[in-house]
Automatic annotation (TrEMBL):
Pfam families: DUF2125
Key words, A-Z: Signal
InterPro entries: DUF2125
Segment forming the signal sequence: 1-21
Species this chain originates from: Paracoccus aminovorans
Protein name, entry field: DUF2125 domain-containing protein
Region (Disordered): 383-423
């Protein structure tokens, strides 16, 4: 009996051995190199030294981006110490970096920065192909000092500080490699003083009450996200992430010149209770959601006679869309919500000094779903480049030493606008459902629902379907706008006739209206049974 129990225990230990396997400093370092390289970074080390249980790497360079835009980090030293099957990693207290690229005018720029992380540590456990890194960064300070553009170097004092960051990063090697992460941070502070030209400046500062970040990634072997996002997605790249942020307070002031060349100064402040963001991208589609708690904003400027201020109770945004080309229609979604929008009295008094209009908080809810055909992969840069290469030559090419061809566009901006207009759009909507459209403002309410689809062999410029809408308080709003003079008296009758054409009363004696719009196959449109087109 004892022999059987011992044999079973040994078998169980063998099955679970990877969970208790040791990791070496070399394996931990290589896992980080593999991770950065899978994202398209290059990693080089200047020197490697192993003394006892500690592996020390010196003069490490990590680079990302291409010739047009690049970020490079230089880490003086990384020490990885083995202890009881785990590895503790300590980065140098301070590291440097440089962001380089070209601005809109084609002029090269260079922005050096430093990152300080005193007291940082990370403990890695697990197996060579399955590691968990638990980190503790008491302080992270990012500092910029100058910016060089062409032959000019200007001060650029910008600072970002993050306190008490802790979390974990889990890596599973393989094809594809898998990663998941979670991180919490304490108070975040930021400040800056940017001066572009003499007399022009922007100063800002603020703080945020911590963040929570989590997510996961599936990265196929050999993928280069920086170089070809589309190919990586087709190979199986998938990313998801969530950011939750606490209360945010920020203020700024600026000085410069108006469009007329007059001196201009101003200041502003934002006070928000928090927000959250989430995203996801894979070959199955892309999604982006955002939500905001209560927030307020105010702005004063020397060229405005009064301060601008507004506040909201909450807001949200939800977008889901396909990214890969297909002859079959694919689903999409677009939703937006804004609740409790209020404007400052100074704004209201511009057009309603007597307070005749209700100033109750306004709201808007929009929810659209449908299907669309994707004519080209959304992240396919080679397809866009091919379209540009086959585009007709611009008339500016006819310029000669004696002058410009009379048919040439007036300037490059006009030519660029013509090129953008000619570029085919990647989406061809097939059908759209209005699940909800609800607007509540100025004492009136509008609600609408419906569904439209492209006709056989046609597109959404001449849809087929039906939309129904309900209105409340619209006639009363027209009366108030007329009394205030915002609708001239000689146009009031025309406005009411237009309302009568599209809307009919719901209940006798009540300010409630309804509309039923029908879009027919032959292109005709009916409103409440009456043809209007």
């Amino acid at each position: 009996m004892k022999l059987r129990l011992t044999s079973s225990a040994l078998a169980l230990a063998a099955m679970t051995a990877p969970a208790f396997a040791d990791v070496t400093s070399e394996q931990v370092w290589q896992s980080w190199v593999d991770y950065y390289q899978s994202l398209g970074y290059t990693v080089t080390e200047g020197k490697r030294d192993k003394a006892g249980q500690t592996l020390t790497l010196s003069d490490i360079a990590i680079k990302s981006g291409g010739a047009d835009s690049q970020v490079a980090f230089e880490i003086p030293q990384v020490a990885l110490t083995e202890d009881g099957g785990k590895v503790t990693t300590v980065f140098a207290d301070s590291m440097t970096g440089t962001a380089t690229g070209s601005n809109a005018e084609g002029e090269a720029y260079e922005v050096p920065f430093t990152v300080a992380m005193p007291g940082n540590s990370m403990v890695t456990s697990g197996a060579p192909g399955d590691m968990t890194h638990e980190f503790d960064y008491p302080t992270i300070d990012l500092a910029l000092t100058t910016m060089k553009s062409g032959d000019t170097e200007t001060p650029l004092p910008i600072r970002l500080g993050v306190a008490d960051s802790t979390g974990s990063f889990h890596t599973v090697a393989g094809s594809p490699a898998k990663y998941d992460y979670a991180m919490k941070s304490g108070k975040i502070t930021f400040s800056g003083d940017v001066s572009e030209k003499e007399g022009e400046s922007l100063r800002f500062d603020g703080s945020m009450d911590g963040t929570e970040i989590s997510g996961d990634m599936t990265v196929p072997a050999g993928s280069k996200l920086e170089e070809d996002m589309n190919a990586a997605l087709k190979a199986g790249l998938a990313m998801n992430g969530v950011l939750k942020a606490g209360a945010l307070v920020a203020s700024f002031d600026f000085a410069g010149q108006s469009d007329e060349g007059e001196p201009q100064t101003g200041s502003g402040k934002y006070d928000g209770k928090g927000f959250d963001l989430s995203y996801g991208v894979s070959q199955d589609g892309m999604s982006y959601q955002a939500g905001s708690d209560a927030g307020s904003f105010q702005l004063t400027s020397s060229d405005m006679p009064f301060p601008v201020n507004y506040s909201i109770e909450s807001g949200s945004f939800d977008m889901q869309m396909p990214v890969m080309r297909s002859d079959e229609a694919q689903p999409f979604k677009l939703a937006y919500s804004l609740t409790g929008l209020t404007l400052g009295d100074a704004i209201w008094n511009l057009f309603d000094a007597q307070g005749q209009l209700p100033r109750d908080p306004a709201s808007l809810d929009l929810d659209l779903t449908g299907t669309t055909k994707v004519t080209r992969d959304l992240f396919d840069q080679t397809a866009s480049a091919a379209e540009d290469a086959t585009a007709p030559a611009d008339a500016t090419d006819d310029a000669t030493a004696e002058g410009m061809d009379e048919a040439a566009p007036a300037d490059d901006a006009e030519a660029a606008a013509e090129a953008d207009a000619a570029e085919p759009q990647p989406f061809e909507p097939v059908d759209v459902t209005i699940n909800q459209f609800a607007l509540n403002a100025l004492g009136a309410k509008v609600n609408a629902q419906g569904a439209l689809k492209a006709p056989e062999g046609g597109d959404m410029t001449a849809p087929v379907g039906q939309i129904e809408a309900q209105y409340e308080g619209v006639n009363g709003l027209v009366d108030k706008l007329g009394a205030m003079g915002l609708i001239p008296q000689d146009q009031i009758m025309g406005v009411r006739m237009m309302l009568a054409m599209f809307a009919k009363p719901v209940t006798e004696g009540e300010d409630k209206l309804a509309t039923q719009l029908e879009f027919k196959e032959d292109g005709s449109i009916f409103a409440n049974g009456q043809q209007i087109k």
